[in-house]
TrEMBL record:
One GO term describing the cellular component: plasma membrane
UniProtKB keywords: Cell inner membrane, Cell membrane, Membrane, Transmembrane, Transmembrane helix
Membrane topology designation: Multi-pass membrane protein
Gene encoding the protein: yciB
Name used for this protein in its record: Inner membrane-spanning protein YciB
InterPro entries in the cross-refs: YciB (IPR006008)
Pfam family, one: IspA
Organism, scientific name: Rhodovulum strictum
Family: Belongs to the YciB family.
Principal location class: membrane
Highest taxon in the source lineage: Bacteria
Length: 204
């Protein structure tokens, strides 16, 4: 039984991307400042990260409250934000938060890769109801997405280790979002070739 509740697409998008936009704005406002709290100096990046942690938990909770469902990907992201964001604030070291996307995408690539080695598409288990498609199509999409996630993990490592914090924040806010959007936009022919019409899926 599916207990999911309908939610307006605009509201869902706002809850998913809102924390990222808020982090970006907070960073722009605070990046030139250093704040002394309890005898320790914190730069704007660390404080923006501190605000991002409760915000991602709040929006994830609201999504669950409004829809009755939160994806495993969203849960994993929230957990890693708390862990690596918390380490960033606690140790006053921005490197931990910058590593977070690497861990997330490497984790996703690893999980999908394990499924492929077992001859399965874990992606199909998660998204089949939203995107009805033949098994062959799911296997192709899973292989492509595994490589894509692995590439994003490597790219994040290269950018945060070799470029400025400003460049990394822009990459995290815009680059990753645009890359994921473009990836799925380029899979149109795959969905068209292997897609299953709703009528056929229901046996009509």
């Amino acid at each position: 039984m599916d207990d999911r509740k309908p939610i307006k697409p605009g509201l869902k998008l706002a809850l998913e991307l809102g924390p990222i936009a808020a982090f970006f704005i907070a960073y722009l406002m605070l990046r030139e400042h250093v704040f002394t709290i309890a005898g320790r100096d914190y730069d704007g990046f660390v404080l923006a990260t501190a605000g991002f942690i409760p915000l991602i938990l709040l929006t994830t909770g609201l999504l669950w409250r409004l829809t009755g469902h939160v994806s495993k990907m969203q849960v994993a992201t929230a957990v890693l934000v708390v862990v690596f964001g918390g380490l960033t604030v606690w140790l006053n070291d921005e490197r931990f938060f910058k590593m977070k996307p690497t861990i997330i995408y490497a984790l996703f690539a690893g999980v999908l890769g394990v499924g492929l080695l077992r001859g399965q598409s874990y992606l199909q288990f998660v998204m089949e109801e939203m995107v009805p498609m033949q098994r062959a199509g799911w296997m192709i999409l899973t292989r492509r997405l595994t490589g894509f996630f692995a590439g994003l993990a490597v790219l994040n490592e290269v950018i945060w280790r070799t470029m400025s914090t400003d460049m990394w924040v822009n990459f995290k806010t815009f680059g990753l979002t645009i890359a994921i959007f473009l990836f799925f936009m380029t899979q149109g022919k795959l969905f068209e070739k292997y897609g299953i019409e709703a009528s056929k899926k229901d046996g009509v």
